[in-house]
Structure formats: C-alpha cells, structure tokens
TrEMBL record:
Residue intervals of the Aminoglycoside phosphotransferase domain: 33-258
The name this protein goes by in its record: Choline/ethanolamine kinase
InterPro entries given in the database record: AGP_Transferase (IPR051678), Aminoglycoside_PTrfase (IPR002575), Kinase-like_dom_sf (IPR011009)
PANTHER family: AMINOGLYCOSIDE PHOSPHOTRANSFERASE-RELATED-RELATED
Organism: uncultured marine crenarchaeote E37-7F
Length: 348
C-alpha cells in the first residue's frame, strides 16, 4: 500500500517552482521515507537524479522548528560544513506540519560507525572551531542565547526538575527517594565554584554523533534548529559527553580546534561546565521519558520509539552523574522510583 505522504510530497514538488531547487524543469520524481529522528521525519526525494531531503517537523511543542532550522542553515551555509537548504514551507496543510527542503548528503552519520578514528575527531575539532570563529556582529540580534552563566544553567535545570516533579506527583503522591536525589544534586551544583565569565560565539547547540555526517571525506553538521550564541566550552563539553570521548580523543579534538581558533581559557573552562552539562542531560533524559510516556510528542514519532532505549540512556547518564560525584555514590539506580509502573510495561 502506497504511503499517502509519498503522494503528497510528489504533488507538492510538481507544483513548486523548480528554480527554487536549482533545477530548470522537473522530469522525474521518486520519494521514500529514510528515517525518523528525535523530532523530524525525513524523506528522500530524487528529482531528475538530484537528491533532496524533505525534513518534516515532528515536535508539536516547537512549532517554529522548521523555520528556525532554515534560517540557521542560511546563516552558516558559507562555512561549507552544512547541507545546502533550498526552501521552507510554513503551511501545515500540505504534509500536516511545516517542513524544509535541503540537500541530501550521501554518507553516514558518525553514530553508525563502530569506532571513530582519530583523524575524524581532529577534523571535527576543526569544523567546530570554524563555526565558533564566525563573525556574529551583523547577526547577533537575530540569534537566541544559550545561557552559559552559572545562574542560567541552574535555572534551566530547575525548570526540568519542576517538570519532572509535576509529572511524578500523578503517580507518586508521597515524596520519595528520587525527589531527594534531584534536590541534593541541585544544591551540590549551587555550591560549586564558577570562577569564569562566559564568552559567546556562534554555536550549533546539539553536536552529537547522529548530527555529524561523513560525506565525501568531509564532515557536515546537520540539525541546526538550536543554533545560537553560547560559550564555546559549554558546546565542547556537550560534544565530549555525547561522543563519550576518551582523554586521548579529547586532546585530538582540541588539537584540531586550537589549530583554527585561539582560546587560552578553553581548557580551564571545560571542567567547570562539565557537572552542569551532565546533570542537565540526565534531567532532560527523564523529561523525555515522561514526554513519550504521556504522549506529548508527535503520534508518528511515538509509534516508532523504543522506551527501553530511552530508559537505558537515562541510566547511562545517572552513572555519569555518580562518577562525577553529582549524585551520591551510595544511591542505586531504580527506574521504578523514577517513572510509573505502566511505562515499564511499554518496554516489553
């Protein structure tokens, strides 16, 4: 049975001015679904042999997601580390949500590799440094700011904890061990010394292995909806965490980075941001389980999710928090104290 979205995409492309896609006329079109990410549904469209990615927003809580990513790609396109973007469609009547059309990259995302070589890690450092070197004087007012001060980071974490506690009250009316763990960890972060003043550069906002494509021996970054101003050390700490880099690999990344961008304070800042980043991601992971369990994301996205994978990732971040001494070492992982019992049944 034909996918109705395939038909709708083809009909839309036939009516679109082909010059928008750098094509004189449309002779042939084929489409098929290529993947569903955390917040996007992606279709490959081949028009006259040329490949495009139709990227549909699947995150109802972020209605401007497609628009933000389109504008972000236009800003960073001259750097040569992104796919080319062609078109933004604001109407939800066509495919049920907003979407963008961009260049399809032939290649593999780094999360598909069993082992990422040292040369690739160094090249990634170079690519991130190029991004951070971008002159922001003429675009600063159009960009969101990813708060990078201690107060900013604590406020973000506090909002996440409040969300988690609101959800948990429906299923755990009596305050339990887990609330105490979150509260104690938050107070630990409050006490930490933060002897730096953040500086702000142009940052991607979500550099993880699934958002880096190896294409024709070059690295390209995708998923640009979180582009904004942030401290470079905060972005790099997030990258180190998501890639699970060893100390040797971190040095390779920094070698490539510092070849392109001079930053004498960078290595001093990294360990200061680290505990805030790890605990923030842990809280986000718990939030995401509740979003899935409560059906707060797009229905198409929900159908293809394995809740166990998200729970396993949350446990991984819990372990990192213990190793970093953000969570007490005597606290044991117990998912049944974090989410309701019926969520766990969804994993079997």
């Amino acid at each position: 049975m034909a996918n109705p979205l395939d038909h709708k995409i083809k009909e839309y492309l036939r009516k679109l001015d082909p010059t928008i896609l750098d094509i004189d006329n449309i002779q042939s079109i084929s489409t098929h679904k290529i993947g569903l990410g955390e917040s996007n549904l992606n279709y490959l469209a081949i028009i006259n042999g040329k490949k495009f990615n139709i990227r549909i927003n699947m995150y109802p809580h972020f209605p401007k997601k497609s628009e933000n990513e389109f504008n972000s790609l236009k800003i960073v396109e001259p750097l040569g580390i992104t796919p080319k973007v062609f078109h933004y469609e604001a109407s939800k009547e066509i495919l049920g949500e907003t979407f963008i059309i961009l260049e399809y990259l032939d290649g593999r995302s780094l999360n598909k590799y069993k082992k990422i070589g040292g040369d690739v890690i160094r090249k990634l450092g170079v690519a991130v440094a190029q991004l951070h070197n971008t002159n922001i004087n003429n675009i600063e007012n159009r960009l969101k700011r990813h708060g990078s001060s201690k107060m900013d980071l604590l406020n973000i974490i506090k909002q996440m904890i409040e969300y988690i506690n609101r959800k948990r009250k429906h299923y755990f009316p009596i305050r339990g061990v887990f609330e105490n763990v979150l509260e104690k960890s938050y107070k630990h972060l409050q006490r930490l010394n933060f002897p730096i003043k953040p500086s702000y550069v142009l940052g991607h906002g979500d550099i993880d292995p699934s958002n880096v494509i190896s294409s024709q021996r070059k690295l390209k970054l995708i998923d640009w909806e979180d582009l904004g101003l942030m401290d470079p050390a905060l972005e790099i700490v997030g990258l180190f965490d998501s890639f699970d880099l060893s100390n040797k690999e971190k040095e390779l990344f920094l070698k490539g980075y510092l070849e392109v961008r001079e930053d004498t304070s960078l290595k001093k800042k990294l360990p200061i941001f680290l505990p805030f980043q790890i605990f923030r991601v842990f809280c986000w992971a718990i939030m995401h389980i509740y979003e899935l369990g409560e059906g707060e994301t797009n229905e198409v996205f929900l159908k293809e999710q394995d809740l166990k994978e998200h729970i396993d990732y949350t446990e991984k971040m819990f372990t990192k928090c213990k190793k970093a001494e953000i969570i007490d070492k005597d606290v044991r992982w117990n998912i049944s104290e974090i989410v309701p019992e019926h969520y766990l049944k969804l994993t079997t």
